[in-house]
Amino acid sequence: MVNHEIILRKIAKLKEHVSQLRQADDITWEKYQGSIRDRAFVERYIHLAIQTVFDIANHIISYQCWKEPETYREIFSILASNGVFPHEKLPDYQNMASFRNMLVHHYEKVEDEVVFGIFKNRLEDFDLFQEFVLAYLKKDKNAPERTEQA
User: Fold this and answer.
1) Is 150 part of a structural domain of the chain?
2) At 59, which CATH number?
3) N or C: which end of the chain has fewer CB within 10 A?
4) Does residue 120 form part of some domain?
């Protein structure tokens, strides 16, 4: 069984990152285009949210001793294959992984329209991920709880 305390702590962090993005509702397209600070804020908090999703996913995969993912996209294939979330959501989360790679490795090519679109229209993907993980944790009662060693 996964360590629920760790997952819940990471989910709280994910909620915090998404909340910061939602509270920035004063950032319009015009403001976003004209302010490097606003662009950096949005990009950074989306990046933090995605990294936190990866942390949660990797924790579950590791504790369940599932196949070790070779790519960020594969993380979501493994979760979907093991019933953490429905297969029809797989493309959404794999796109999240691809976006993260573009943001981190090809930052000079990041398209403002894509980032702003995620900021304004895709934050619910993070909410759904949290719901899927929490539902999975409720079902996950097959193995004894592992605790972190100090």
Assistant:
1) no
2) 1.20.120.580
3) C
4) yes
